[in-house]
TrEMBL record:
Putative odorant or sperm cell receptor. InterPro entries: GPCR_Rhodpsn (IPR000276), GPCR_Rhodpsn_7TM (IPR017452), Olfact_rcpt (IPR000725), OR51/52/56-like (IPR050402). Pfam families: 7tm_4 (PF13853). Keywords: G-protein coupled receptor, Membrane, Olfaction, Receptor, Sensory transduction, Transducer, Transmembrane, Transmembrane helix. Residues 45-296 form the G-protein coupled receptors family 1 profile domain. This is G-protein coupled receptors family 1 profile domain-containing protein. It is found in: Membrane. PROSITE patterns: G_PROTEIN_RECEP_F1_2. It is a multi-pass membrane protein. The chain crosses the membrane at residues 33-55, 67-90, 96-123, 144-166, 205-229, 241-264, 276-298.
Length: 319
């Protein structure tokens, strides 16, 4: 309990209530089934991809290590968000502890930043493969992937830690109902009795610094790739070159499209239901995770062959 200078009394809170889709309660019913199916698909597809790359020696190459890293990030993001959302839908378990809420906030921001950075590294991988094919084996090595992974982890782990710290330092004196399915920074911060201008400014700057810089470098990479492809004279060479980076480009579209729609819905929030941004925020943690391994599995012959070998081994072991 805290007594303020104006004589009012407020109580410190120990947990929050995630009050998602309060304006559209019917959404919980029809959304729970597809959301649970997407979650199972994301877990299963990414697990199969990781096991295939781990067991198949021919896939022990830098490009597939990057894809493994992306799958790990997708699994962690899904596990951080979707089980809690489904628990709210099915069992009305809205309560989340103070510390669990800020831990979820940190993991979401950190791992989304790591995904963005991984896409940027994968774009550079495709740039070197197409624009400097003879130098590719000497540039994109296992050592390069290890350094890229360390950079990705360090950059995002260190910079995004300030988001939950800035939110946790605020004084939460009364309201504890979050109008969201997840502990998003601003959804939580606006419950405090303090000025949250610093939280808003820091999140905006960090988003443009991390995601903006990654997207800029991805655009530059694909600009150089397109220019190099257009110069190819050999018949079918351009199509073959573009096919090598088609899967990666589709993954970037999955990741960025939902983010852009989420931004636009926030801008136009007075014209749409407040539950729309909440829905998009939840879907962004499961749709790319479910589709990423499928896109690579369908479009990459080496991965398809690796999965076939894995299934053959499983059948033989059963016999």
């Amino acid at each position: 309990m805290t007594v303020h200078q104006n004589g009012t009394i407020s109580f410190e809170i120990s947990d929050f209530l995630l009050n998602c889709f309060i304006r559209s309660p019917s959404w919980k019913l029809w959304l729970s089934l597809p959301l649970s199916l997407l979650f199972l698909l994301a877990m299963g597809a990414n697990s199969v991809l990781l096991i295939t790359i781990w067991l198949e020696a021919s896939l022990h190459e830098p490009m597939y290590y990057l894809l493994s890293f992306l799958s790990l990030l997708d699994i962690v993001l899904c596990l951080t968000v979707i089980p809690k959302v489904l628990a709210i839908f099915w069992f009305d378990l809205k309560s989340i502890s103070f510390y669990a809420c800020f831990l979820q906030m940190y993991i979401m921001n950190c791992f989304l930043g790591m995904e963005s950075c991984t896409f940027m590294v994968m774009a550079y991988d495709r740039y070197v493969a197409i624009c400097h094919p003879l130098r590719y084996p000497s540039i994109i090595t296992d050592h390069f992937v290890a350094k890229a992974a360390i950079f990705t982890l360090a950059r995002n782990a260190l910079l995004t830690i300030f988001i939950p710290i800035l939110s946790a330092r605020l004084h939460y004196c009364g309201k504890n109902i979050i109008d969201n399915c997840i502990c998003a920074n601003l959804s939580v911060s606006k419950l405090s009795c303090d000025n949250i201008a610093l939280n808003r400014i820091f999140q905006l700057i960090l988003a443009w610094t991390l995601l903006g810089s990654d997207l800029t470098l991805i655009i530059f990479s694909y600009t150089f790739i397109l220019r190099a492809v257009l110069r190819l004279k050999t018949k079918g060479a351009a199509a073959k070159a573009l096919n090598t980076c088609g899967s990666h480009f589709i993954l970037i579209l999955f990741f960025s499209t939902i983010l852009l729609v989420f931004v636009f819905t926030h801008i136009a929030k007075k014209k749409i239901s407040p539950d729309i941004p909440v829905l998009l925020n939840v879907l962004h943690h499961v749709i790319p995770a479910a589709l990423n391994p499928i896109v690579y599995g369908v479009r990459t012959q080496e991965i398809k062959e690796g999965i076939r070998k894995l299934l053959r081994r499983a059948r033989e072991n059963r016999k």
